[in-house]
Write a structure and sequence with these properties.
It is a single chain. By secondary structure, this protein is an alpha/beta fold. It contains 16 helices and 37 strands. β4 and β5 form a beta hairpin. α1 runs antiparallel to α2, α5 runs parallel beside α6 and α10 crosses α12.
Length: 701
């Protein structure tokens, strides 16, 4: 225990002097009461001296510092796989009815100096134990990442994972497990012996096909335990009127007990719009599951491609990073070129991504005037080699006035929630705001009234309203401005953290989709953020309403009706934001959907409509063979062990016998203001009371 104060030591002597002065002034030669023995007046003077000194001392706000010893119990997490694949085994009844009770018994065997938590996982860590076994995917990598985020700073002793080892989504679990720095003990569930089953393992296809072109769909099938049997593989198109049009039919002879075969099915895109297809295998008696005999998929047929030019003023890793992000979009023809080698006709491109243009070497900027005259949309990406004075001349939507031409700023991104031109998913926004800094100009940046920022600069943890990524609207051509170089760092950082590049892909793709879309001057419009969704994805809508002066309006309600192809309807009212309407419809069952949004403003009725589709996912049914080899590897590499359900009680003994799983003891300093101690207040009250009663008894005032 130690006394701590922010004032010099001599202030304490001053408190004593103040107390003495009060006592002396009150009791020295006090003739107001009859004479009493001297010791009585000395006692009264001491009480007044002590009371005033203590009060003066407390006014200095002294603190008592204590060192508290904290003992943190080691945490043991017991988590079970709650995905569908667990039930694709011969012991499914045991897992459904008894296994959770066995895990509870396992938890109870740990002594009280351990903190045991029982949880579940599927597409990530769940907050409560569950045995519903309805998870659509098994994402063990994300689960281990969630454990690291929630328990990484605590005394995590060990993790016990009960699973079948089938991982069908997410980052590498072993790499994530090594980050935990805690042993992982695995309980191997499921069967390594193939169950009798017939299944469609995978259907590979492009999301987009081009009108009157053929496209190929690759189908992989497997069969276990059906040697010398036969089935039929069919592909049909499901029409909105309920009609099924047969497109492909093939008899499949199963030649051995572990059979697999691939088929390339060529289909023709004969009509624009969404097309719903179904691949199926005729069921055979004795299958463990018949749900994996059918897979649906959707194809959007479009009429043309967009030619995109990525033009750099000099070699830069951003050029390749942008190309890789756009490469999976089949409706784009992408060309990358450097200005000194570029000699193509600029009118053949529908969109230009201009990296560090206008260039400081002016002879390479001639194409800008040609593209502007052709009203070609441009995404300007600024950097250290951008000639900002020329940039301000070739367009007036966003002006950049350098404060110091020799310096640049390191800025991260913060999302502007009022941006309405298009929407990003919450996952994308969260990741972008965690990415490393870009190199942005150290400048005064002034956007025009028709330019809105999707991302703002964040400088040294200070949020600003300085545009980092902005777009013009209601002007021709559309322009985009990314005022910072280093997009390639974002892609590398995302892959390092999450083993995916979904967020950077989404950002650049939606940017390109917005810039390449035709100008829409309607007074009311509603759209979805995607055209094809997986069944575990949330569906976002955005709507805009404009007055006759083309100013955004959010006064009237906007109703939304979503109708599935079978006639089932979902009705909602969109939420208002600052200048538009937004709505998250959540997850919807697989199928084709149409939607219509309606509103009335100034006695005029407005409506807009569109379509989207939701694809079913059956990752769990595609692979039903347990992967115990992976579970053994995961345990060994983290200094743990693998068990089976009939031996899993040994995990408690093995964890208790480890010398490195023990309570964590640390010291925590506690500062408490002395004025908060009640016993000091009690002393002051007693001193005042004694003095008051004695003065009354003596006849004083």
């Amino acid at each position: 225990m130690e006394l701590v104060s922010s004032y010099p030591w001599w202030y304490y002597f001053l408190c004593l002097l103040i107390g003495a002065a009060f006592a002396f002034a009150l009791y020295y030669k006090d003739k107001s009461v009859p004479e009493k023995p001297r010791f009585v007046w000395q006692l009264l003077a001491f009480l007044r001296f002590a009371t005033v000194s203590i009060i003066s001392f407390l006014l200095l706000n002294p603190m008592i510092k204590k060192d508290n010893k904290i003992t943190e119990k080691p945490i043991v997490l017991i988590i079970n796989d709650d995905s569908k694949s667990i039930l694709y085994s011969k012991d499914s009844a045991f897992y459904r009815k008894q296994f959770q009770a066995e895990l509870l018994k396992l938890s109870a065997k740990f002594p009280t100096d351990f903190e045991v938590k029982q949880l579940s996982f599927s597409n990530g860590l769940l907050s409560e134990p569950s045995s519903s076994f309805n998870g659509r995917v098994t994402n063990l990598g994300k689960t281990l990442t969630d454990i690291e985020e929630q328990y990484g700073n605590l005394n995590l002793g060990a993790v016990v994972i009960a699973t079948d080892g089938i991982v069908n989504e997410g980052p590498n679990p072993i790499e994530r497990a090594l980050r935990l720095k805690a042993p992982i003990y695995t309980i191997a569930l499921g069967d390594t012996t193939p169950q009798i089953d017939l299944l469609i393992k995978k259907v590979s296809h492009n999301e987009i096909a081009y009108l009157n072109n053929n496209f190929t769909t690759k189908i992989e099938i497997e069969a276990f335990g059906f040697e010398n049997k036969a089935t039929t593989l069919t592909v049909v198109e499901l029409k909105e009127n309920g009609e099924n049009i047969s497109l492909f039919k093939n008899n499949v002879s199963i030649t051995n007990s572990k059979f697999s075969s691939n088929y390339d099915v060529v289909l023709k895109a004969e009509k624009e719009g969404f097309h719903h297809y179904r691949v199926s295998l005729t069921p055979l008696n004795g299958e463990i599951s018949k749900s994996n005999n059918v897979k649906d998929f959707f194809i959007e047929v479009v009429d043309n491609k967009t030619n995109v030019l990525i033009l750099g003023s000099s070699p830069h890793p951003d050029l390749g990073a942008i190309k890789q992000a756009l490469k999976p979009l089949q409706n784009l023809n992408i060309e990358v070129a450097l200005s000194q080698n570029f000699n193509q006709n600029i009118n053949q491109y529908q969109l230009i991504i201009a990296h560090q243009f206008p260039a400081q070497m002016g002879q390479y900027n001639a194409w800008i005037n040609k593209a502007t005259a052709l009203k070609t949309p441009i995404l300007f990406i600024g950097g250290k080699q951008t000639a900002w004075n020329v940039f301000n001349q070739v367009q007036k939507n966003l002006q950049v006035n350098l404060r110091n031409s020799a310096t640049s700023s390191r800025v991260t991104a913060i999302h502007n929630s009022d941006f309405t031109y298009f929407t990003l998913t919450p996952n994308c926004i969260s990741k972008i705001q965690s990415f490393p800094p870009l190199d942005a100009p150290f400048a005064e940046i002034r956007p025009s009234l028709n330019t809105s920022a999707l991302l703002y600069n964040k400088v040294e943890n200070v949020n600003t309203t300085i545009p980092l990524l902005a777009f013009s609207n209601n002007v021709t051509p559309k322009l985009g401005f990314l005022l910072g170089e280093g997009f390639w760092r974002w892609r590398l950082d995302e892959f390092d953290k999450f083993q995916t590049q979904d967020a950077t892909d989404e950002l650049i793709r939606k940017t390109i989709q917005y810039l390449s879309s035709k100008e829409d001057k309607r007074f009311f419009k509603c759209k979805t953020d995607e055209r094809i969704y997986a069944e575990d994805a949330s569906i976002f809508f955005s709507a805009e309403l404009y007055s006759s002066a083309y100013e955004p309006v959010v006064e009237p309600d906007v109703s939304l009706a979503i109708t599935r192809s079978d006639g089932k309807q979902y009705n909602y009212v969109l939420n208002r934001s600052t200048s538009s309407y937004v709505f998250n419809a959540g997850q919807l069952p697989p199928g084709k959907y149409s939607y219509e949004a309606k509103t009335t403003y100034n006695n005029i009725a407005y409506a807009d409509n569109g379509t989207f589709s939701v694809q079913s996912i059956d990752y769990e049914g595609s692979v039903t063979l347990a992967n115990h080899k992976f579970l053994q590897q995961l345990a060994v590499q983290t200094s743990g062990k693998m068990y089976f359900p009939n031996t899993m009680s040994k995990v408690v003994e093995d964890i208790l016998n480890r010398g490195d799983i023990k309570p964590s003891i640390y010291t925590e300093q506690d500062l408490t203001a002395m004025i908060k101690y009640r016993w000091i207040l009690g002393i002051l009250i007693c001193f005042f009371a004694i003095e008051w009663f004695m003065r009354k008894w003596l006849g004083g005032v």
